[in-house]
Specification:
Blueprint (H helix, E strand, L loop, with lengths): L18 E2 L2 E2 L1 E2 L10 H13 L10 H21 L7 E4 L2 H16 L5 E5 L8 H10 L2 E5 L9 H7 L4 E7 L11 H10 L3 E5 L11 H4 L3 E5 L10 E5 L1 H6 L10 E4 L4 E3 L13 H17 L1 H20 L4 E4 L8 E6 L4 H9 L3 E2 L1 E3 L4 H7 L4 E5 L6 H18 L1
């Protein structure tokens, strides 16, 4: 079954079938955040309307019910990513907090002056700045893994950077700005040969690919709920148990403690050691339903649908005179970044919004990448399970209309 004309999943997402500026909505900004299926919204509404209570503390039914649903999400995530143990699944506010947690709790405590951190040229700012903060404090050196003109990591150059001083490597699994799928498993294997730890930013990968932390042998891996049909304000950090046990808490507060006195505090065991304070309970419960939805559809079905959309969209947009696509990696997820000769991306997005088309423009929190591409910004159409041929055709027609406006 082709998803292009008859998309059976679109009806699951109420926001996909609405009118904007008098036109049907073509939502093409899923790399920023995905739309939410009805089952996620309903589950969170149920918690707030009828089941509100804190977790891990109360002995009454509401609290025990909330705790059961909250911890069930941890089990679902552990299964989704094939974590060896549920205790290795840490709830955070999102990928950004997960990176900061590892930078402050692991790198700050276990790396020394002169040690090196490797980042790729296509990283999101959230996978650059936290490492820079700790590198400045600890007098560490950050080195950049170069990419080629297609937006692919130059693997031989990566291998040349690996040496005894490299202690941490952090690379995006799927680029938010280019769609490139990086050879993470092979990169991790090479990193471990020199004793380096590897952090995987899987924010964009989690709904596009099967993410298996044991197969990858990732030391750390993170993603955000809102990129995988779930709510904002919640994410996940996975870490190897021996590393998480060595790391001191990132924040102090309730739930992360064992015994507190004014003289000395002892800390809770994993995963609670890193989950201080009242968590985003409704968001975590909603995330559990998002995992249910992904499992119901099947990650392979999602990938097949997105690959079909990407192929159609790439061919359609490539036929427009003066349009250039940035990011043409052989192994790529459903992101199409582009520019049009003589037109500023912001003008394109503003005008195309009048046609009901929602795309993202700007540097996509990847200014070093934009500098490499020699552009101030790009337009980005990012596709997901709920998109169809009509969305892409609407984008195509909108671009032609914008071009004719400036001619």
């Amino acid at each position: 079954m082709s998803i292009l004309k008859e998309n059976p999943f679109r009806k699951d997402f109420p926001a996909a079938e609405q009118t904007i500026n008098g036109k049907r909505l073509a939502y093409l900004d899923s790399a920023a955040t995905t739309l939410k299926p009805k089952i996620v919204v309903d589950e969170m509404d149920q918690y707030y309307r009828l089941e509100t209570a804190n977790v891990h503390r109360g002995l009454y039914w509401l609290s025990e019910n909330a705790t059961t649903k909250f911890e069930a999400t941890r089990d679902k995530i552990a299964t989704l990513i094939n974590s060896p143990d549920r205790r290795q699944v840490i709830f955070t506010k999102g990928t950004t907090e997960s990176v900061n947690l590892v930078a402050q709790s692991y790198v700050r405590n276990f790396l020394s002056e002169g040690d090196e951190i490797l980042l790729s040229q296509m990283e999101h700012h959230s996978n650059i700045v936290p490492w820079q903060i700790v590198a400045e404090e600890k007098k560490l050196t950050i080195k950049v893994i170069p990419i080629n003109n297609e937006g692919e990591i130059i693997f031989d150059e990566y291998l040349k950077l690996l040496g005894p001083k490299v202690k941490m490597i952090s690379v995006v699994f799927v680029s938010n700005a280019l769609g490139t799928i990086n050879p993470i498993k092979e990169m991790i294997q090479a990193a471990h040969k020199v004793g380096a730890k590897f952090f995987v930013d899987a924010a964009q990968a989690i709904t596009h690919l099967k993410v298996d932390v044991q197969d990858l042998d990732a030391d750390f891996l993170a993603f955000s709920g809102h990129k995988m049909f779930g709510p904002t304000g919640v994410g996940v950090l996975y870490g190897k148990e021996e590393l998480l046990n060595q790391m001191p808490p990132y924040q102090g507060g309730g739930d992360m403690i064992d015994v507190v006195t004014f003289e000395k505090t002892t800390y809770n065991s994993l995963p609670h050691k890193f989950e201080a304070g009242t968590p985003a309970i409704a968001a975590v419960i909603g995330l559990g339903r998002a995992v249910d939805y992904i499992n119901q559809v099947g990650i392979e079905t999602i990938k097949k649908a997105e690959d079909e959309l990407l192929d159609y969209g790439t061919k359609k947009l490539s036929s427009i005179p003066g349009l250039r696509i940035y990011g043409t990696a052989k192994n790529k997820a459903s992101v199409i970044s582009f520019g049009i000769d003589g037109l500023h991306p912001h003008d394109i997005a503003t005008l195309i919004d009048k046609e009901g088309v929602a795309i993202r423009t700007g540097h996509h929190c990847a200014q070093p990448l934009m500098k490499f591409l020699c552009v101030p910004a790009t337009c980005r159409a990012s596709l997901s399970l709920y998109n169809n041929q009509a969305d892409i055709d609407q984008l195509y027609a909108g671009i032609l209309k914008v071009k004719s406006f400036f001619e």
